[in-house]
Amino acid sequence: MKPWIPLALLLSALPALALGYPEALARADDRPPVVAARAELDDAEAQWARTEADPAALRLERLQARQRRELAAAQLRLERIRASAEISLAYTQLLDAQAAYRLAERGLELAARTLRVAQLRYVKGGIGRQELRASELRLEEARNRLRQADDARALARARLFSLVGGPEPGEALAPAGSPVLPGLEAVYLRLDAHPDRLRAAQGVELAQTALALLDPSYAPRARIEAAQLQLTQARTALEEVRRGLRLQAKARWQAVAERQRDLDLARGESDKAARDLDVARERYRAGLISELALLQAELEREQAAVAVQNAEHALLAAAWELAVATAWPLEVRDAH
């Protein structure tokens, strides 16, 4: 008969489940600005339904109720994007902090081994006191970097936890996804759904309707002229909003392009570090370099890989900033 093992013990032996990037983004709906925007949309839809059902409702009242509903929907979409961008940034910052901590650990291990070698060489008379002291200082610097990396990791974890309620201690993070990047013309087209543009366009529509309700047979000329001026001003405001949104979107799109170039460079450096490591391993097997030199090459390869991850996350953050600027949801491919 097999021995009985408590279920809790079995579960504790399993690896901690990873918090996934899509699951973290899904919690954007729980953020207070999104909750408030959803409540505004619910109220706007209820008001619109009441107005539409009211046979005595005036044309202007129906228009205003519809506009409020449309604007509330656009604002809810933007708040969801903002909340997702905030969560994404906190998520990738924790990933970067965890990677930096692992690098600091490896750096400390290498510094400790280097000091042991230096102590041995000092005893044998191969180096002087100054060289030994330099190795001791490098070890102390490595310890400081590890402490700083640990503090940064804790802060990043607390930040993400405050947004999504995770990860728990011991819970891993799955890799973040990669953004689908639109062309500049597609970015411009998306601006039509931006709440600022919609609000300005609604101002034009409202002014047009107000002017259409006036007739010289019953409205004073001064009132008609004032309505015409209001329409002209609304159209001017709409054009200004469009121009401002295009300039902002173009700047964000260019920032994305710059981050993409940075990522390409980081990948090139990572490939070079991988080739250098292969060479170092061959030389080590041939007895041409020391174990410390090989460990240094391995650390440089890890540093280059972390630099690629950092560049990927910088690109993702820039893409989310573009999504906020256009009020258009970002499509993110799965990391796998």
TrEMBL record:
One of its GO terms (cellular component) is efflux pump complex. InterPro entries: TolC-like. Keywords: Cell outer membrane, Coiled coil, Membrane, Signal, Transmembrane, Transmembrane beta strand. The keyword Membrane applies. It comes from the Bacteria. This is Transporter. GO terms for molecular function: efflux transmembrane transporter activity; porin activity.
